[in-house]
Predict the 3D structure of the following.
Amino acid sequence: MANNITINPLAQELNAALGSCIAGRMLSDLGIRLYFPKGIIAQSGEAKKLGKTANATIGMACKDGKPVILSSLKDQLPTLTSGEAVAYPPTAGNEDLRALWLNAIKKKNPSLANATISLPVLVPGLTAGISYLSDLFLGEGATLLTGAPAWDNYVLIVEARRNATLKGFPMFKGNGFDVEGFRAAVMAEAKTGSVRMLLNFPQNPSGYTPTKTEMAEIVKILKEAADTGADVMVWCDDAYFGLDYEDNIESESLFAKIANLHEKILAVKIDGPTKEDYVWGLRTGFLTFGSKGMNEAQYEALIKKLMGTIRSSVSCAAAPSQSLMAKMMADPRTEGEKLAFRKMLEERYRVVRAFIDAHKGHKALQALPFNSGYFMSMKCTGVGAEDLRVKLLHEYGIGTIAIDPSHLRVAFSSVDTDKLESVFETIFKVAGEMAK
């Protein structure tokens, strides 16, 4: 029993398969109850493979064994078959696409060469992935550590949806990552017996990725926490992965460094093409699990749990997004164009970097460390971030984001390079005039 609700036998079966591994130990009450039903979706999957005479399992209108499609829609998606455009995809995502993404992860992260990790599960965007992880692993009253300041959607998911606590640790000290502040936060939580944390690099809103030296220290601290006997779960939000603009930045994901580090560490990679491949509206992401203490059968049980939360919410992600993404990844033009877009973003970063370096000591705005990603943020002194945002928008037509009362975020990614300097000049001028 969990909360006086009988646990379904299929959930019990998955719980037994997970056994005493770290993923099983860290499940929330909801995670314990979740399972993937052997209902329509599972039975339809079997029929898709074996139903050669007729497949009368799924609620689609078919002709000659293929889904029908309106001409008006087919005209908009001429490269897709009706199956690729409108058929229901598997709950965990297109299997070929999942395999492609696994290969891509390993190619980008050489440290994973000898690690046993799960097959990525496709989710309808990285935000959905974080929400599903919260379903699986955050019970009411649980604590999730993250860097401060943080993306505002974290608190909405963790606290409003799951009634858990998002606890910030100081992200920065001086010009870099606050290693000692991180250590103190992790070790304090380890005393409770378990550590749950969400680390986002490059980070939103700061636009910071740890250096190679800092990342090594982060990994060392996580291992030290696990060595105390605590279970350590790390969600690696890699939304902006690969967009690093300085030579000293760690080029691999934290996930790659800890996925095979310790039996008491469970790493989860939350990534996708959204920012990496410039396809924001396709709403496609992936969750990949890695732990030295887990085997293939346990990964499969955990994936079934994840499929249960997908099935019970959106059922599956959109078919056209998955089909278009697979074709995009196979297109020989893709990598060259991605490099060009990345170069454009780096040029914008360089303009902002030069401006900030030339305006140190400003009385109202102090830039947080930044070296990567889409954004940079500034701490506001003597002026409220929201007041500054409103004045910039209504009097100067410049849109920015007030992250909290004292931090203003600027997405240099969305501003043409030739406008950036004048935009920042205006921001600094107005903030200086408003500062008390």
